[in-house]
Amino acid sequence: MSAPDPLIVFDGVEKRFGENVVLRDLSFTVAPGEHVTLIGPSGSGKTTILRLLMTLDRVTAGSITVGGESLSHAPNEKALSVVRRRIGMVFQQFNLFPNMTVRGNLVEGPTRVLGLSKDEANARAADLLELVGLGEKIDAHPTQLSGGQQQRVAIARALAMRPDVLLLDEVTSALDPELVAGVLALLKDLGETTDITFLCVTHEMGFARDFSDRVMMLDGGRVIEDAPPERLFTAPDHERTQTFLHAILSH
Amino acid sequence: MENLPRILSVLAEGLPDTLVATLGGIVLTVVLSFGAGLLLLSPRRWVRGTTRVYVEGFRGTSEVVQLFWIYFVLPVLVGYQLVPLVAGIAVLGLNHGAYGAEIVRGAIRSVPRAQYEGAIALSLSPAQRMRRVILPQALVEMLPPLNNLFIQLLKSTAILALITVPEVTRQAREVLIPNFGDDTFLIFGVVFLIYLGLAAVITLVMRLLERWAAGRLGRRPTGRRNVLEAV
Amino acid sequence: MPLWDWDYALAILPDLLLALVTTIEITVLGSVVALLLGLVFAVLRRAHIPVVDQILAAFIEIVRSTPLLVQVFFLFFALPRLGVTLSAFAIGVVGLGVHYATYTSEVYRAGIDAVPRGQWEAATALSLPRRRVWTGVVLPQAIPRVLPALGNYVISMFKEVPLLLAIGVVEVVNAGREIGSQTFRYVEPYTIAGILFLLLSYPASLLVRRLERRSVRT
């Protein structure tokens, strides 16, 4: 059995902000359905990888493709939007739209971008809210929800677009401790029941261990270790990984 | 006091022109504010530059000068004379639109960057991002300063008297003062009340709009008037 | 006949510049009235003296919500009936000054409100006399941060001077009108008038914006 074609390809990617090099000569691939977690000290470039994939930032050198289509060198906004449609993102600060109800947030993309009818989008929104355990909040305003509830809505909003790739950017970092477990359980559930490809930045090492097929350790804009979680968490090759894990786990 | 009915009826004759000038001016102001405000945020330098010229040109010269220029100079240059009321509405709109453009630009820029990113992550097109996500949130920020702007515009309609538009101020100055000189205080009292009433109507409508726009964001209206930014 | 006659433009320039001096004089004197009277209004309102407070609030609301032109006409026609005769120039200064005092008073008020409560309390704890609390503690903190807003109002006043032509003040636009009525050419005088306003008020507003940015940073 041959390995499937990779879904995501980073090839020699560099990202700099002025003088500051955040990613240098970064190359890796992600297979369809794979769950990859990015760990590393702050400033190591984890979030930048997600932001480049979501086209919130642009590469300064190298290329990124998703499903064979160039994300970093799309000829125009239209071509870009076609690739972008396959990717969803959940943010640390949720970024729900306060000018819309929960339902509005969930049907916005499906009706405006995917061209679903109102009824279809509404049905999809209702199903997803049930899935994330917030069925009764469909007509609430985001501001009326707790942080954990807002993040579940944000996850549902991303799922409503039926993405092939879902980017999770420290999705529990802004939550009160007692709300974290519920959101992580939901994500684990999604990981098991869907064939979505996940790229995940998190400081929750227990979650990373259970959820991931692969963990990538970043430091100084490079991947210094890339291994299955069992190995990376118990017997890391690299000294930097050891000290990082030690610091974060003893914390 | 026995002249009050006459005074009221003469001023009432001026009311339609004051109302038309105010409403027409507000409509034109809104169109230009949003148009120029969005253009000021264009990624293209020459678009921003050209719009800047309009905004600074109208903010930098006197409204009376603009009025006289459009009414007396423009016809010489283009060979077409505008009706006074139309010339007046054009100046009211162009002038206040230049101020409104800055209000719109500032309000749009005050929407957090994260909201743009959320909209991109949903694959909304640039136009959809603006219309569906950014503008509704910016609207709440711009309504209080727009309220101030519209009241300025209402007050500015008085200068249309200088180009013979028979609005309330001109009716008072040209018809009432020469004929009812003994009732000077009464005449001005009524004129002041008319403008106060119209200003109150504008504020009432804008407050309702604010409440509606804030309600859509699940917030209460702040009702604040930031006078430091009102100019 | 050309649309723009340079000889004519040059010939009328001295008269227009002379009128510009008048415009500036009125702006400066009017600003003094507006800046001082506005401060008095703001401090008075802060004192919350029963009846005075309501009267002042009503006065400010009326003046702010009604046209300056109407107020100027009012002073022009009503004052003589009270036995007060002022020149058109003086009416211009008073009219502009009082009108804008209602704006500057709100600016001062916002500035005063922005001084933290702790400053008042500390001044009280030191048993400073009331007057000293204002002049030594509150106003020195409030006024610098409202300078840009006050500057903007001075520029606005400058641009409103032309409506005084309605009571015969010979400012720039009125001078242009008199010249035009003799020669039947209005293109040059009114265009030059516009340019003169732009030449003065645009740099002034850039200055205010720089002041604004500086005060935001500190």
Keywords for this entry:
heterotrimer; A: about 250 residues; alpha/beta; four-stranded antiparallel β-sheet; globular; B: about 230 residues; mainly alpha; MetI-like fold; 8 helices; flat
- How many helices of chain B? The count is 8
Strand content of chain A: 15-25%
Number of strands of chain B: 0
Low-confidence runs of chain A (pLDDT<50, min 5 residues)? none
User: How much beta of chain B, percentage-wise?
Assistant: under 5%
Organism (chain A): Pseudonocardia xishanensis
Membrane topology (chain A): Peripheral membrane protein
Subcellular location (chain A): Cell membrane
Protein name (chain A): Ectoine/hydroxyectoine ABC transporter ATP-binding protein EhuA
Task: Please describe the topology of this protein.
The complex is a heterotrimer of chains A (251), B (231) and C (218).
Chain A: E1 8-17, E2 20-30, E3 35-39, H1 46-53, E4 61-66, E5 69-70, H2 77-84, E6 87-90, H3 102-112, H4 118-131, H5 147-159, E7 165-169, H6 177-193, E8 197-201, H7 205-211, E9 214-219, E10 222-227, H8 229-234, H9 239-249
Parallel strand pairs in A: 3-8, 3-9, 6-7, 7-8
Antiparallel strand pairs in A: 1-2, 1-4, 4-5, 9-10
Chain B: H1 4-39, H2 45-60, H3 63-78, H4 84-110, H5 113-121, H6 126-156, H7 168-179, H8 184-216
Helix pairs in contact in B: 1-4, 1-7, 1-8, 2-4, 3-4, 4-6, 5-6, 6-8, 7-8
Chain C: H1 6-47, H2 50-65, H3 68-78, H4 88-113, H5 117-125, H6 130-160, H7 172-183, H8 187-217
Helix pairs in contact in C: 1-2, 1-4, 1-6, 1-7, 1-8, 2-4, 3-4, 4-6, 6-8, 7-8
